[in-house]
Amino acid sequence: MSTHAHAFAETVAKTGCTHVFGLMGDGNMHLVIALERQGVHLVEVRHESAAVAMAEGYTWSSGRTGICTVTHGPGLSHVATSLLVAARNRSPLVVIAAETPSGYQGAQTFDQAAFVASCEAAYRRMTPGEHPADVLADALALAEDESRPVVLGVAADIFTAPVEAAESSPTRQPRAVPSDRDDAAAAERLGRLLAAAQRPVLIAGRGAMDGVSPELMRTLADRFGAGLATTLPAKGLFDGHPLDLGIAGGLAHPAAERVLRAADLVVAFGASMGRSTTQSGRLFANAHIVRVINDAGAGLGTASGTLTRTVAQAAGTRQPWFTPTGPSADCWQEDLRDVTPPIPEGTVDPRRALAEISEHIPDDAMVVISNGHCSGFAATFVTAPAKGRFFAAQGFGSIGQALTTAIGVALGAPGHKTVVFEGDAAFMMHAQEVETATRAGADLTVFVLNDQALGTEYQRLHAEGGHAEAAIVPPPDLAAVAAALGARASTISSGDAHTLAEAALSPGLAVVDVRTARSVVSRHLRLPG
Ligand SMILES: Cc1ncc(C[n+]2csc(CCOP(=O)(O)OP(=O)(O)O)c2C)c(N)n1
């Protein structure tokens, strides 16, 4: 008779999931072995937090729900930040976590359900008599329906026990279906607002990136002469369109910012319009902000349904109310021209280095950027690949997630180069996972923007006028670290970045230590407040 571990592994394989991320402990070791026997690539990480981050990256790029596994007690508690990050990103994934075996009296017990709840994920405990296929299907459905991480708790002794329960076909509750009436009401109101506006801007967030919404937004902008902008996660969505203004918020380029500040109506599709996009409310202080969100459950219809109807009702085209700004990369020349701090010997201007690196990133690459001061440069001076994807690993405001998330992105997108931009302090938090990427065969190029400091804190302390040196914590020689962990390694510390970037972006795993000058402050930190 098949064991539960075997039945779980069979079910995982049937989902089409090619990789499962995990770290073995006595709670989940039999599952790990069964998965490998089943032909699923078990990516053995060096820290459990990385398993969850990689599963999230895998979800992002593969379109399948990422799965990872950890053991009980400290194996699970290690995932706290990554779980919260995925919850805040609304990323579906499933963590198969062992629970201590029945009757266990040892040190590793804690309230796993309460811990998971405080990490804002769902906890689904397997109860005796359930079939593994049903339990996993249920956890996956919960993760996908609610767009959140789910921890599936399985008592360790269940994995080796034979399956006696019969498999049922669980019935999935149908999701709330948007009604045409909701879309029609929203479209009528939106049409009226747009017709009355003098200076409209349309903003797309992550919730409006897929399907027909981007094309409908372009058409709607043409009809009303409206500006088109995105939030950071939707960067690049309107590249090439004459009305494109790039990213709205603290990361807007100077020319776009002037236009955005003058808007009288801002219509956001699939965007929460938080502090970053609105510059804490200052950017659109004089505008009426309307959010069109997908919330069929609350009777609010869908962004795409509302867009379809608004476009259908709008007649003619209007001239844009602003002078088009041109491609974002050109607009950033203004910043390069006006802000020219001294660049110390042995370092490069991060803006120029990134603009040069960006030219070599393949068109179909997956690009992942981190949090931290350096993300201001990566978000603005790296162009989103036209046929690839752009991701911001910034959920929960955490640093240290980009490298690990990018490894999952790379493994979920075979045939594409994945490129990650990470700060040096953040890189050092999970540098050991470079070795995991080596073993897993990830096609990944890591650019570490190395200002030898906790750059955000350095810049803030510097602006306050004191103690900035407290934030200088130079990492070891990153190229030597990366080489020891199995990656091709190089250092950009002078001149132009073209040659080294091109070599580092060839297939395989490479880490580039980009020695950046602390004298250059990203525009988003130069803005008031
Ligand atoms: C897990 C975590 N710890 C600490 C912080 C606070 N923090 C924000 S940015 C930053 C500096 C990051 O340094 P680095 O990765 O080198 O990027 P840089 O800011 O220098 O570009 C820190 C410590 C955080 N956001 N998340």
Rounded to the nearest angstrom, the distance between the terminal CA atoms is: 65 Å
Number of helical segments? 24
Silhouette = globular
Task: Identify the CATH architecture of the largest domain.
Answer: 3-Layer(aba) Sandwich
**Structural domain count:** 3
Strand arrangement, largest sheet?
Answer: 2-1-3-4-6-5
Features:
40% helix; 529 residues; globular; 3 domains; six-stranded parallel sheet; Rossmann fold; alpha/beta; 24 helices; binds thiamine diphosphate; 17 strands
Description of the structure:
- The chain is of the alpha/beta class and 529 residues long.
- The protein has three domains: 4-159, Thiamin diphosphate (ThDP)-binding fold, Pyr/PP domains (Rossmann fold); 180-313, Rossmann fold; 340-520, Rossmann fold (3-Layer(aba) Sandwich), CATH 3.40.50.970.
- Helices cover 40% and strands 16% of the residues.
- The chain is built from 24 helices and 17 strands.
- The strands form three sheets. The protein has a six-stranded parallel beta sheet with strand order 2-1-3-4-6-5, sandwiched between helices.
- Helix 7 (132-146) links the parallel strand 5 and strand 6.
- Helix 10 (213-224) packs parallel to helix 13.
- The mean pLDDT is 94.
- Thiamine diphosphate (TPP) binds next to helix 17, helix 19 and helix 21.
